[in-house]
Structures are given as C-alpha cells and as structure tokens.
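so the lab meeting is tmrw and i was supposed to have these ready like two days ago... anyway. pasting both below. for each one the top line is the aa sequence and the line under it is the structure tokens. i havent really looked at them closely yet so no promises
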Amino acid sequence: MAITAQDVNKLRQMTGMGMMDCKQALTEADGDFDKAIEILRKKGEKISAKRADNETKEGVVMIYTSDAQNEGIMFSFNCETESVAKNAEFNGLADRIMKEAIAHKPATAEALMQLNSDGKALQEYVTDFVGKVGEKILVTAYAHLQGEKVVSYLHSNSKLGVLIALDGTNGVDAVNVGKDLAMQIAAMSPIAVDREDIPQNLLDKELEIGMEQARNEGKPENMLEKIAQGKVTKFVKESTLLNQEFVKDGSKSVKQYLESVSKDLKVKTFKRISVI
C-alpha cells in the first residue's frame, strides 16, 4: 500500500524515530503500525513508549476511594486542549461521570458511559458538550479495584493517578505502604505485579525481539536464545512492580521492602492511568 507523509509522521510521533526509519518500517509492514514498531525494535532501535495514536492529550484523572478504604474507582477524562480541560462544564461532566461510577460500579468504560444520569446516558452528555466545543472528548481508561485496603495517589497536575489494592494488611500501616507503592507505580510505570502476571504472548514477543536484536548484532546462532532470555529477565525486572528497585531505598526491591514490613502483606492488583 502507499505510505503517506501523514502515516510517516504519525509513526514518528508514536516512536520518536527519524522520518526515513519510520517510512522504511511502514513500507516493510505494509502500513501496519504495530508491525512497524516491532520492526524498529527488532533492528535494535530505541523507541519511545508513548504510543499515543490520538490527539486527546489533555484532561483530568478522577479518583475515588470508599470510606472503608476497601474499594476504589479511577478513570481518565480526556480532551484535546488545556483550555477545555479547565472548562467548568468539562469538569462538571467528570464529576457527573464519577457520581454514576460510584453508584453503579460498572465493569468497563463502555458500560460506564451507557449509565443513565437524570434521564440521559452519560455518553449523551459528552456528545452534547462535544458539539459545543468541537473537540474529541472521551473516557480513555477506567478501573474499579477492591481489596482489604485500597490506596490512591493523584499527581499534583491531576493528569496521573494510581490505585493499588493490598491484602494481608492486619497490623500494618497499609495506607503509608500503599502511598509508597502508588508513588513507585506512578514514577516507574510497571505493567504487572510479578512475572506470572505478564501475558505469555508478551514474554514470547520480547524473546523474539531479543533474538532478532542479537542476530543483527552478529552474535552466534547457538547463543541467540540465551542472550534473548537475559533480555527477557531484564524486561521482567524493570516492568514488574515487585521486582523493581524500590525508589525510596535502592538497596532493596519492592518485594523485599514489602517483606520487611510484613510477610503477609501482598499487592493484589494496581492500576496506573494517565491522560497523556
């Protein structure tokens, strides 16, 4: 298929790579952006993780935790410009959406936007507001977490939020531990709690990419898998919360930090949401 300048620029925005590299990757991938990104990675290129393929880079993250601190709700409400993000009606819509989310606790963002509020679906309110301001506006991510203790963190600009659910919290200052871990998640962007929580197809993909990188570096064929396994191990260490270096004490991992607080304390799940 014909690769347009717009396509090339879009991939460049997604990856931070040069125009020619992006054009070549898109040509090789026949216009498939995910395949083009994979091609760039296999060539050993260091690409950005932004992967932002839409223009809604402004907005607000909304967070709620129950009085009992055993439940939390969070979502991002996105728009295109800062002026709309600061608009009173936009923020009033975000509050309306959160009110219905707390009342009904839907499973998905799609179900959330179909909830009825004063005789009209939430999506209808958003559509009406889009007609006024002429911008793309939507809930881009949504989470409902439950656990013995659910702790939240909202960055000062309200564009980044974290919910974390902990179990085994008896006799533990779980709120302060949760805050430490939530700030860790905000700063280090783990994708899972531990290795077993990473989908196997993602680990397989990292192994494949690692082998191709080693092959392109001229490594012996019989050493490719061993080298790639080392890259996968590094990926797991950097990408899973429990195996990351604890940001408040680099001498220990997050897992070791938790064990120093209580052997019973466990991270059940977490969610990190950003409008960018």
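ok protien two:
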Amino acid sequence: MATHLAEMIPRNLTVLDVGSGDGRIASSLIKMRPDLKLSAIDTTVRDNAMIPTAHYDGKKFPFNAKSVDLVMMIDVLHHVEDINSILAEASRVSRQFVLIKDHFVRGWLARQTLTLMDNVSNRQFGIAIPANYQTEDQWNSLYANNHLESVIRRDHLGLYVWPLSWIFERHLHFMQLLSVDKLHPSSTQ
C-alpha cells in the first residue's frame, strides 16, 4: 500500500492522514518518502500508533482551510455514514490534492466480500462497519459534488497473494489521486 502511495504522491508536500489507525502505512510511506511532512488524525487514537496522531470528532478536521497540500484517507470513507461531508472537509483543508484508497461495489457478492474483509480486520478495534461501499458511479458523483477531479487511479493494487487475490482482490479496491478545484467557492471556506 505504501509503495502505491509513494509513487502517486507528488514531491515535497504536507500530507494529512485522516483515519491513520496504527500509523503503519504512514510510517512506511515516510520511510520511503522523507520529503513529505505528515500529520495524522483519527477518531480513536491508538496507544500503539507508530506516528503521532491527534484526535478528531469524525466530522470536522482540526485544521484551517487550505492548510495542507494533500489529504489522504486509506480505507476510511466506507466507515463513515456521510462520505460527502468528509470529502467536503478534505476539499476544505487541502490546497491541492485528495488521495483515497477504498472499495468499489463491483461484481458478484462484492458487498458481502467487502463486509467480511472489514469485519476480520476492524471489528477487534471497535471500528464502526456501516458497510458504506460505493459503486464507481457513486464515487464519481461524490467527486463531482465536491469539485474533485481525477488525476490518477489505480485499480490493480496487488494487495493479496493467490489464491486470496481471486477472492478478495477482484477489482474491489482502488486508489485515486484527485485534484481540488481551487476556483470553486466551497473549497476556500
């Protein structure tokens, strides 16, 4: 995961990691990309976090408008009830980019497979699992609502070895770098 991030994120940016969890991905990213300056927030700050993490209420990021270059949310948005409002916050806080790694509801038993994966990886940490998975069209509508435009998208992330990839990969995962429309009024409030 960190390798994809390192390849997709432009150089010398300030990055806000929203929903950083244990900080493992961000920690790996910083080792690969020491040019990045990273901050992290989460609704539940873990004692064993590998990076300093600030608490936030799950609604409003504790940052001023246009205070970071890039906001990244890795497997976060399907855990929130209102994806649109979190994307609006990301657009408000970011000067340039929003980077998302999440899931598509695509193909046979996609929703069930994603829910199973979420339960196995997150239930132990008490993380909410509303299973708010989106289709590709729904994601595109959310981007349009928040004046975000695709720069790069990767659909083949290679997160699992075979035969697990046949079950859990199946074009269910994506990572997307989006640019923030600097001219739209809502992106400056």
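from a quick look at the 2nd one: Residues 2-182 form a domain with the Rossmann fold fold (CATH 3.40.50.150). The two ends are 32 Å apart (CA to CA). will dig more after coffe
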